[in-house]
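re: ur question from earlier - yeah i can do the single chain one, its not a big deal. heres the input i used so u can compare w yours
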Amino acid sequence: MAPGAKKGVLPVTSGPPKFAVRSRTLPGGEVWFTCGQAWEYDSEDGPAYAISMTMTPVNWDGDLLLVPIPEDLRTDSQD
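and the output i got, formated as tokens:
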């Protein structure tokens, strides 16, 4: 856990996201689209993720993927 971090409190996210958050366009469908970003951080219980969704898909079934963003494509922008 980061110095000064408290259990149950999300850390401040900074820097480029490490993952793209993707969800299906239809429940059970095969097409996925980017609907947010995620940052990895260390917690007392191991790796944890802060997820920011920029949109909630219509008819979303709750499934999502965290897809790693290649380092050379990471930027500080949070669209």
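The beta strands are 19-24, 32-43, 46-53, 65-68. not sure if urs matches, ping me
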